[in-house]
Structure formats: C-alpha cells, structure tokens
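Translate sequence into structure tokens.
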Amino acid sequence: MEASKEQMLAEAKERMLLLGISKQITRDFIEDGVVSLSEGIGYLYWINDEEKEMVSDFESKTGSLVYHIIKTYTDFGLLYSLLFVSKKKDTWKQDKKDIEQDYAFVYVVNKDEEAFSEFGSIAFRRNIGGLVRTS
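Result follows.
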C-alpha cells in the first residue's frame, strides 16, 4: 500500500524523533519542509541549492521523502547518505527497527563517482543533535 504525502511526513517526524535529531531541525522540516544535513561530528546545516536539487531529483525518481542527510568525506568520495521515507508503507516497521539499532537504509550519493551511488544500509551514531555515519 502506498502512503500519502501527509502519512510520509508523519512517519518522517517519528523517525527524526527516534534518531534524536534536534527538535528545531525536526520542526523546520515538518512545518516548512526544510531539509538539513549532519556533517563532521554531527553539526547541523540547512542544505544548499545544489543539495536541494539532489534531494528533488531523488524524490521525483522514487516518490520517496528525504527528511535528513548525513554528509561524509571519505577516501572514495564525498558521500551524501539520504535518509528517506519510502512511499511503500510495508517497509516502515523494519526501517524503524533498524533505526533503533543505529542502522538506516539510505540512498548514498557519491558526488565524486556518481556511478558508485547506491541504496544500502549504513551505521550511525547520534551526537550533538545530529548524526555521524560510522560505516
């Protein structure tokens, strides 16, 4: 069963609360649609125009709703891990279980090697209101 935009927003809010993302960042997203990203040790930033375009492209291709991003610099490229709510409600229960175990199913955009962008699971930790990718 596919979810409505309102259902996806409610699910995103639940996940943001589970993740411990800053209440202000969560409020900005729910009330104004402002997507933020975590970088470094969990510092929180609003996304820039290029990042907004990346989110818009992903959402239009998948029908999913991106609610937060983890930006990570690695030896194999600059990675954007897009945390999203799928329009397929049957995945939501497992997604939340994973979050409770400090994992998330994400789409990773590799800005340096676009061919290596892919769906997959990442591990993370919570810090200072944001998230840090650990694997």
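Note: The helical segments are 5-19, 23-32, 49-62, 92-100.
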